[in-house]
Design brief:
The chain is an alpha/beta fold. The chain has 2 domains: 265 residues, 3-Layer(aba) Sandwich (Aldehyde Dehydrogenase, Chain A, domain 1); 192 residues, Aldehyde Dehydrogenase, Chain A, domain 2 (3-Layer(aba) Sandwich), CATH 3.40.309.10. The chain is built from 14 helices and 21 strands. The strands form 5 sheets. Strands 15-16-17-14-13-18-19 form a 7-stranded mixed beta sheet, sandwiched between helices. Bound molecules: NADPH dihydro-nicotinamide-adenine-dinucleotide phosphate.
């Protein structure tokens, strides 16, 4: 359970401890950090800062639990995964409320996120209960070749703040399903949701050291964890810069790295412009644009450009910026100041280089924190601008015009990330031809970038800087296991 804070900090909702082997370590001398609501600035929790000795202890505890988890077998682990889903579902409302308070997304979006996490636990449970070995034919007649999936062992997991329930679940559910024991460093900005997840896993009956949590800053705790000789593999979601540091720290060990995107949606001239704007609305503004799969760049055929910009401005006007717990709110504040500053830097750079702000473009006034940002539409984006080259991660629809399909593909590919893309057209064959040439892990035809079904493979295209490997349903289980081939004399008779 989340340890309750007493004495002079009694106003604080909760304290998120270091948890090793199922035990919360709450020594008085351990440093802690404040977790503040991006919506109100109020303190919502305190979070322990794990020390090097905690990371050592967590890894040692996890190492001791791998044999227990493997020994349970996939069907038993599957049962426990279903139990985690049931607990999360039963507590969905308070968890969504805490998630919304520390992350800043509207409560409706937080509820949706928890519901998706519940489905992900069930999906992992179903998948692992049907995991089978493979028998390969042998060139040598008296030999049997059996290929099986084994856990990596101790899995280090590091996760960001934008989806504090679903992104960790991707690694925790599939990682446990496969029989790994986990040491997890959640984002220092959303540790309360992490503590809920950890508790649900423990209460479902997983052995105590199945998931160990070492909260704290990435630069210290995360770096100690990913460079530790005791880990067997890493699962990481975050920015390309951090992801590349993690790749170096854990060099030589299996890695699943889900990094940033700068995703293009191409809009062809045959679409209904109002309908396209409706589809682009959540693609650009859900979670205030803080989604790795958000549409970051809209590349529209020039003949449709002005109409689309007007339609986007009209749907943007409908966004109700406000407190996450207000039922009328459709967009909350940004989560943190560095994200706000990056959005402002990209907008200033774009306008300095000739882009035009059609609507929005500023911090919104009259709110308790500076993190509320007006939903924004900008046109005139060019490849020279920062917003074209880097992920903005904010509530901005950047638009650029193109003259033909060839130029649309060139612009979509003219950057070094490659997570997801969209081609909006009424002609599926034409869309498919473009999709084949766009360098991204997923290309949606008829839908914008953002749309992803969580059981399908998600990850960066080869040769780009968006990561390594694939998340999603059975693909995550494959990434979080290793293949073991055992060749034995074939039983006679
Ligand atoms: P960061 O890369 O800043 O942080 C991600 C995690 O890494 C945090 O837990 C952070 O800790 C930790 N970390 C920081 N430095 C290190 C280090 N040296 N070694 C190990 N861990 C470290 O990303 P954000 O949290 O800002 O998340 C936003 C980014 O995540 C965006 O680029 C977004 O595109 C990407 N993302 C990718 C997704 C995908 O599926 N491809 C999905 C969602 C987001 P701390 O607590 O200190 O921040």
């Amino acid at each position: 359970m989340t340890a309750q804070v007493t004495g002079e900090e009694a106003h604080v909702t909760s304290y998120v401890p270091v948890t090793v082997g199922g035990t919360a370590l709450v020594e008085d001398d351990r440093a802690s950090m404040e977790v503040r609501s991006p919506a109100t600035g109020e303190l919502v929790a305190r979070c322990a800062v794990a020390e090097e000795r905690d990371v050592d202890a967590a890894i040692a505890a996890a190492q001791g639990e791998v044999a227990t988890l493997t020994g349970m077998g996939p069907r038993q682990r599957g049962k426990l995964l279903f139990a985690v889903a049931d607990r999360l579902e039963a507590e969905a409302e308070p968890i969504a409320s805490d998630l919304s308070a520390e992350q800043g997304k509207p409560l409706t979006e937080a509820r949706g996120e928890v519901a998706v996490a519940v489905e992900m636990w069930r999906d992992a449970a179903e998948l692992v209960r049907h995991l089978t070995d493979e028998l390969l034919p042998s060139d040598v007649p008296d030999r049997e070749i059996r290929v099986s999936r084994r856990p990596h062992g101790v899995l280090a997991v590091i996760t960001p703040w934008n989806f504090p329930a679903t992104i960790p679940t991707e690694y925790l559910a599939a990682g446990l399903a496969a029989g790994n024991a986990i040491v997890w460093k959640p984002s220092e900005l959303t540790p309360v949701t992490a503590e809920h997840l950890r508790r649900c896993i423990a209460e479902a009956g997983f052995p105590p050291a199945s998931v160990n949590v070492v909260p704290g800053p990435g630069g210290s705790v995360g770096a100690t964890l990913t460079s530790h000789p005791g880990i067997d593999a890493v699962g990481f979601t975050g920015s390309p810069q951090t992801g590349h540091a993690v790749a170096r720290a854990a060099a030589g060990r299996p890695q699943l790295l889900e990094l940033g995107g700068n995703n293009a949606t191409i809009v062809l001239e045959d679409v209904d412009v109002e309908a396209a704007a409706e589809q682009l609305h959540p693609a650009c503004f859900a979670n205030a644009g803080q989604i790795c799969s958000s549409t970051e760049r809209i590349i529209v055929r020039r003949e449709l450009h002005d109409d689309l910009v007007d339609a986007l401005a009209a749907v943007t006007d409908r966004i109700r910026l406000g407190a996450p717990d207000d039922p009328e709110t459709t967009m909350g504040p940004l989560n943190n100041r560095p994200t706000l500053e990056k959005v402002e830097r990209h907008l200033a750079d774009a306008t300095d280089h000739g882009a035009r702000i059609v609507t929005g473009g500023r911090r919104a006034e009259g709110f308790p924190t500076e993190l509320y940002f007006e939903p924004t539409v900008v046109t005139g984006l060019t490849p020279q601008m920062l917003a074209f080259r880097e992920e903005t991660f904010g509530p901005v629809a950047f638009v650029t015009a193109c003259d033909d399909d060839e130029q649309a593909v060139e612009l979509a590919n003219d950057h070094d990330l490659g997570l997801i893309s969209g081609v909006m057209t009424d002609d599926p064959q034409r869309g498919r031809r473009l999709a084949e040439r766009i360098e991204a892990g997923i290309v949606n035809v008829g839908d914008p970038a953002t749309v992803w079904q969580p059981h399908t493979p998600f990850g960066g295209a080869s040769g780009r800087r968006s990561g390594v490997g694939r998340l999603g349903g059975r693909y995550t289980i494959e990434a979080l296991t290793q293949l073991r081939t055992i060749v034995t004399p074939r039983p006679s008779g």
